[in-house]
């Protein structure tokens, strides 16, 4: 979130969300908008009230996974990608063809990582029967496997060398060593064939620079990290939390620069699979005026120093040409392990009474909301900076729109 106030507010709201446990899985089918699935977990697959995760016999392509599930008459809430050096997911779009969705996913990953994502699991509704799941797995076993590599995918970008502090003496009080020492957030439009479908992209570049003393292994055990951008629409009722947004003020799903996570999209990253990345889908109980687009890392200690990472999200266009924004990185209590789950959006940061260990900052504001900066644009903040930097679209290599 964009400020310490926003971060603490989100912690409070996350507790409320855990009590509510809202699974918005069917609204898209009625409205023609993308269906949304929350981020469930394989360890919770037997739960009666949670989506079930169906692990595939082998990794398959996106189009084959969607087509096979459709033929099996099984609703898919999310495709999960792993292997091939990239991790991520797709919330399928109601009414879109399997081919068009596969094209979107594959082009997005190829451009950023030069890798094609491989589907390793499907998330299905809680009501899906054991017989349906068995039939689905049998059908998937007949689908051609995709060849994957264990070689990590490299993110190709050179972050500006604009640090002002001495590499031997990082400035105190700037960004703690357990957080990335430099972050860039690029927000821009993408357009995909064959129908020139437009999306809204959020690219988050970050690294732990040894020259500035940043070290992922210093991240405290039993804590995760979330990083990203939040946008606001001040015309919407911020004094009310989702899903209780009242009518008459606007649309709290679409009245931003992009739609919310709940409206569907894709996300991906080249962080190690062992670091347990997740998309922070759970915006239930966030303010009706905010749209948080964050990516979480359950085990930041698994990241590697002096390695450039990229986490991206692509969502559907909102109704606004620009939105006020802020950016931050924060620690999240790993409360998933207490529930027997691996890190995910619904159980990270639930324990609001737990403070970070002594000597660790719980958050770092990268772009403060009081600057009144807007997305789309590109933003840069790092250890030793006297202030963050904003590049307008088209300025200093900041993209405006990328066509495929």
Q: What's the topology here?
A:
Blueprint: H1 4-20, H2 27-31, E1 52-60, H3 62-71, E2 78-81, E3 87-90, H4 98-113, E4 119-124, H5 130-141, E5 182-192, E6 197-207, E7 223-232, E8 265-269, E9 277-279, E10 290-297, E11 309-315, E12 323-333, E13 363-367, E14 374-375, E15 378-382, E16 389-391, E17 401-403
Parallel strand pairs: 5-17
Antiparallel strand pairs: 1-4, 2-3, 2-4, 3-8, 5-6, 5-15, 6-11, 7-10, 7-12, 8-11, 9-10, 12-13, 12-14, 15-16
Helix pairs in contact: 3-4
3D architecture notes:
- The protein has 2 domains: 4-20 and 152-403, no CATH class; 27-141, no CATH class.
- The protein is globular, with a radius of gyration of 20 Å.
- Strand 2 (78-81) and strand 3 form a beta hairpin.
- It contains 5 helices and 17 strands.
- It is an alpha+beta fold and 404 residues long.
- The model is unreliable at 1-48 and 164-173 (pLDDT under 50).
Key descriptive features of the protein:
alpha+beta; 17 strands; eleven-stranded mixed β-sheet; six-stranded antiparallel β-sheet; disordered N terminus; globular; 5 helices; 404 residues; single chain
Give the overall silhouette.
Answer: globular
Tell me the major beta sheet. 11 strands, mixed
User: Spans of 5+ residues with little confidence (pLDDT < 50)?
Assistant: 1-48, 164-173
Strand content: 25-35%
Number of strands: 17
Give the count of helical stretches.
5
Q: How many domains would you count in the coordinates?
A: 2
Which class best fits the helix and strand makeup?
alpha+beta
Q: Give the ordered list of helices and strands.
A: HHEHEEHEHEEEEEEEEEEEEE
- Amino- and carboxy-terminal Cα gap: 31 Å
Mean pLDDT: 83
Give the % helix: 10-25%
Radius of gyration: 20 Å
